[in-house]
Amino acid sequence: MSKIVAEFIGTFALVLFGCGAAVLGGDHVGQLGIALAFGFAIVAMAYGIGPVSGCHVNPAVSLAAFVAGRMSAKEMGLYWIAQFVGATAGAAVLLLIAGGTAHGLGQNGWGTGYGGGFGVEAAFAFEVVMTALFVIVILGSTGTDAAPGFAGLGIGIALAVIHIVGIQVTGVSVNPARSFGPAILVGGQAVAQLWLFFVAPAIGAVLGALLYRFNVLKVG
Fold this sequence. Notes:
membrane, Aquaporin-like, globular
């Protein structure tokens, strides 16, 4: 139960801090500030709840851990529930704080009127590739031969860099729960486009995890 509570809290914090930076502070901190908010949120949660649950806070990361043989299907399913509920709760608190001043809730998307206006092909490719790279960093930095104590820092930096590159493309998901929470409350186009932020990160997570599963990237 402690692992499930930890995953709920971690995903709640990720959405509240990251999307909160975009909604409440985006005009002041800009793209770099939003990227750092997501990255720093992961660093903080990695050291706060990492010893409890591993700080997945992301269904794609849990899927990668399962494919790599690091967790069971049952545990993955429980993590997913906690992550989706936590993300929705985080988005709900952000909506409560922002109220009528919110222009969305930091939801992901693509196409005309969103970010840089990138098309669905670019959005899909970005989410697949970046999720694969993200889980490679996660699985490598948490392996038994990795430098102890530095996983959270490496993972947070990776997420920040991904956001620096991709906020204009999709707002950056690489995390179906992070996309689900804001979208389900905003509705409309955010929900209509949600499929991409489930499918593409799942593909990327599997691709990255298979490199470890078949020892293409070998961790002791």
